[in-house]
Design a protein that fits this description.
This protein has 337 residues and is an alpha/beta fold. The chain contains 12 helices and 12 strands.
């Protein structure tokens, strides 16, 4: 006989309501209690089934989406693009926000998506071999946004190429001491843009015969405040840079604020370029690398829906284009003002 929710509650020493709230990830459950419930469920091989009627037919009409964060611009765009396409295709979106390292470990250990989704999409996470094998045990179609994995549907952009174009643009303007403001490549969440965009930055410097200087390479953590702090630190270096590549527009906004607060001019003293073409980039006259995040998500969702509909889809990675957008933060002749 399959274990019941009552069995889980008995083993964990909590009420049935607490088991239900813990397994659904609802608030107002102590972390220690939630962990005890998840451990009991795993030991009993218990899987909650909130869609019993659908499961009877073997389908849930739901696609699971795994993201490392939900409070960043990129992932808001991803979720918007996915939700529109999935809804149009008659599927619900079930979100799994990992949030931090314990959350990531819990997801890949407990696998809460089991029996709840018809397919699973992972956004901008570099998976370990063990994590990939865990996903394959779901026995459902898998898709990756922003990461190429053999045998898995993949859609994204070439972050390395985009970063190279950004830095090459600065070099073409005669800039030689080019700082980097990026994300943490050692972040245990293994969020992909910091890895790939840093590679592109280094490749562009090397191709131009410019020596990399770690003194002007600072972490901005993909936030405006982080970008400002990183730029403030870089400005203390001697000699100071004459340009900066920020791996996201939000970090570039912070960098420009720090430069101007130091009494310097953008771009005359220090040119600034970002990456994304965030909604505010044009307003702030920021040169950037444009990517259509929502379109990437929509394309991948359509490919996944094709597979769920019985069509054959090649697992070859589909890369969407990026575009250099030159504004006044690098070229004063291209200013919007």
């Amino acid at each position: 006989m399959s274990p019941s929710i009552e069995d889980v509650a008995r083993r964990a020493g909590v009420s049935i309501a607490t088991v239900s709230r813990s397994l659904r990830g609802l608030p107002d459950v102590a972390e220690s209690t939630r962990d005890r419930v998840l451990t009991a469920a795993r030991e009993l091989d218990y899987v909650a089934s909130p869609f019993a009627a659908r499961l009877a037919s073997g389908r849930t009409s739901t696609v699971g989406v795994v993201v490392p964060f939900v409070d960043r611009w990129f992932f808001a765009q991803v979720l918007g693009g996915l939700e529109r396409e999935l809804q149009a295709g008659g599927y619900d979106l079930l979100l799994y926000n990992l949030g931090d390292t314990p959350g990531r470990e819990r997801f890949f250990t407990v696998m809460p998506a089991r029996k709840r989704v018809d397919a699973l999409l992972v956004a901008s996470l570099v998976l370990t071999d063990m994590e990939l094998e865990a996903l394959k045990t779901l026995n459902c179609p898998l898709a990756m946004l922003g990461v190429e994995v053999d045998g898995v549907l993949c859609t994204g952009i070439d972050d390395r190429a985009g970063a190279r174009v950004a830095v090459e643009h600065l070099i073409s303007l005669g800039r030689r001491r080019i700082a980097l403001i990026g994300g943490d490549t050692e972040d245990p969440m293994r969020f992909t843009p910091p890895l790939y965009r840093r590679d592109g930055y280094l490749q562009a410097l090397s191709s131009a015969g410019i020596e990399y200087d770690p003194q002007i390479d600072e972490l901005g953590y993909f936030t405006v405040a982080g970008g400002e702090q990183a730029m403030s630190t870089i400005l203390q270096r001697d000699p100071r840079p004459d340009a900066v590549f920020a791996e996201s527009d939000e970090m570039a906004y912070g960098a420009m604020r720090a430069i101007r607060r130091a009494g310097l001019r953008v771009p005359e003293d220090i040119a600034v370029i970002g990456f994304d073409d965030h909604e505010s980039a044009e307003l702030l006259d920021l040169s950037t690398i444009r990517q259509d995040v929502s379109a990437q998500a929509a394309v991948l969702a359509k490919r996944l829906l094709n597979v769920l509909g019985g069509d054959t889809e090649t697992t070859t990675a589909e890369l969407l284009p990026t575009e250099l957008v030159v504004r006044g933060s690098t070229d004063p002749t291209r200013t919007s003002y």
